[in-house]
Amino acid sequence: MPVLRVALDLPLHRLFDYVAAEASPADVGRRVRVPFGRGEKIGVIVEVVAESDWPLAQLKEAGEILCDTAPLPDDFFALCAFASHYYQAALGEVILQALPGGLKRMAAPTRRNVRAPAPLAPKPAPELTTEQASAVAAVDPAGGFAVHLLHGVTGSGKTEVYLRLIDKALLAGRQVLLLVPEINLTPQLEERVRSRFVEAHVVSLHSELAEAARERNWRAAFSGEASIVLGTRLAIFTPMPRLGLIVIDEEHDPSFKQQDGMRYSARDIGVFRARQLGIPILLGSATPSLESWANARGGRYGMISLAQRANPEATLPTVRMVDTRRKTLKEGVSDPLIAAIRQRLERGEQSLVFLNRRGYAPVLACPACGWVSRCTRCAANMVLHLADRRLRCHHCGCEHRVPKACPTCGNQDIHPFGRGTQRLEGWLQEQFPEARVLRVDRDSVKSRKQWEAVLERIHGGEADILVGTQMLAKGHDFPKLTLVGVLGADSALFSADWRAPERLFAQLMQVAGRAGRAELKGEVLIQTEYPDHPLYAALVAHDYPGYAATLLKEREQAGFPPYSFQAMLRAEAPAMADAIAFLKAASLLPPVQEHEQVMIYDPIPMKMARLANLERGQLLAESFSRPALQAFLPRWREAIESIKAPSKLRWHIEVDPFEF
Ligand code: ADP
Ligand code: ZN
Ligand code: ZN
Predict the structure, then answer these.
(1) Among all ligands shown, which has an atom nearest to the Cα of 400?
(2) What CATH number is attached to the domain comprising 643?
(3) Weakly modelled stretches of the chain, pLDDT under 70
(4) Which of 501, 527, 552 is the endpoint of a domain?
(5) Mutate which of 136, 159, 474 to test ligand 1's pocket (most atoms within 8 Å of Cβ)?
(6) Residues with CB under 5 A from ligand 3 (ion)
(7) Which of 94, 91, 44 is nearest to 71 (CA)?
(8) Less Cβ around it within 10 Å: N or C end of the chain?
């Protein structure tokens, strides 16, 4: 009797065997209903074999094999197997997370008819600049596997390079996968793709799509009907039979890294997938990740540079420091910045004040007794949101009404301390009553519709002063925006997180890149107490390569990635002592002694030690050899699985960790 080896969505590193009288090897890659526990699950058939390791009599019988899609292909399984091995994630979880929800459920969702998107008027392609032309020429969709890093300053026309390469791939009859960090933030890109390729079937894949739409788009990609797939990180696993090119825009963006469940980097999986299929992959950014930059400098990736803005009228903005040690600040804003905003108002141009902290104030406090609005569930403060009079924890999401008096001493005179975008917005409105001030952050813009409306207002010149978080930093073209003021950036300069400077530099470079994208010259004012800091000096000089070299040298000296390879074991439990004891036990397991090239550090609490009522600890494993780390991890993981831990303790391994 044939035996099905089935992948199920469970955190267990094994497949599940079922007997199925009618099954044949042609069913590999199909979904199947199987009994599990007291219920039923949908799994994916990974193998059909003649015999099981278990006595046949103990195996349950599989239910219906679902034939509504073609079987998942070998390369899909190979990709999932790679991810499972590399990230120490259960194969079943990897396979099933790659499928849209509708394919994993028992009842088929009711289908609705969909309207095709309104046809767009085709937009002609601009003539390429010389730099763009050589960038396009450097990538050959028919030339086999290659990783290209496209380093282009903001406004250098990277998107146009993507579009030309997509065109080449389509002409060769191939499909293209274009990954972007957050689809909501890039409606302009989607429109540019659709209006360039009006004949092509373009689908998007991201977590905010309604389930039916996501399933439909996934099926179109999988059947080969869709030729362009525009997606976020989860789209990297989409099986595509004719895939010929992968493009990852803003490749440095942290959102390509999944931070819960299966923790993976879509960029790194993209590189593996390109290698597996023998196709090129293009990683684009104005501020590449140091990992990619080091790979390109070391010759492992091709390096393509766009040093000039594509629009010949547009030049890079002038970046200046405002030394706040010598200036009095009003509500955190310096006179030179106020004067610069006033000047823009007089000229009918737009300003953007960047403050990466939403809410009214980061904390509410009582000066009489020292009470502060701490989250009871996290090691963090509750942020004051005056707009809806709430205290809200940005980590666990819990919230309360703003108290009228201090909860400990009854003092009615409690104050907000520090400032966020809401407070800044209100204050700027008071200073410039005639101006239209528009705040753009995750509180004011929650849906894609709202986001499109906001972009329209900005483009239509219906806003004079924008107050925004990093939401506004990415990829937008606002022709009338000529001034960017940056507040509160210093706090990241001396962060204990060694990735913080890399992230800050990228963020400031991106936000500065919003200024002066058209004919009008742009200016960036950064308020700081450390005007001579090398990070700011590099911004003034628009010198990404120089600053990257500095950071890489520091990392090399400290033995940090990309000069070492890391994996983090994390444990969370109601009591920190339990988490630490578990990690300590993990650090003493036999594989740790047997793998000399892997170093294990002491268990420590995470920087944010408490989140949503759980205490979190971590243990770092590090090696100067990737193969050594990779050989160690599966053996370590198996050994950890046998540790007897308190029932409420949860643990996971994150390879190439981001958070500390
Ligand atoms: P990036 O993604 O590198 O920041 P974009 O692709 O958004 O840059 O291009 C910046 C601006 O330059 C856009 O307004 C775009 O329309 C324009 N642009 C791009 N390529 C050209 C070109 N070859 N000629 C003229 N304008 C161009
Ligand atoms: Zn008090
Ligand atoms: Zn909280």
Answers:
(1) 3
(2) 3.30.70.600
(3) 107-119, 184-187, 475
(4) 552
(5) 159
(6) 375, 377-378, 393, 395-396
(7) 44
(8) N
